[in-house]
Amino acid sequence: MFMIVGLQDFFCDQVPDQLYLSIFGLGSFVSCFLVSLIGKVTMSDEYSWFVNNLNRAHIDYFYWLLVSLSGVDLIAFFFFARVYVYKRKEN
User: Fold this and answer.
1) CA–CA separation, 70 vs 24, rounded Å?
2) ∠ at Cα 29 (61, 38), nearest 5°?
């Protein structure tokens, strides 16, 4: 939740107006694609990480994958934060 507030502040100041909504749309598309891809890749016999029976589902694996991706994202954030040059505000 707090990340969205920071993203909106960044988008209002630094991103061109034409890209504002496309960033959120792209994020939603990637999220749905990731869940679909993981469901197909982890399908073994009749079960995947996402099944209706919680006794057979492996949602914990999915959350560990999200933790790993967040760690990679944090490293990328630190890299890009060091090399980013802010756009000047127009008065």
Assistant:
1) 18
2) 25
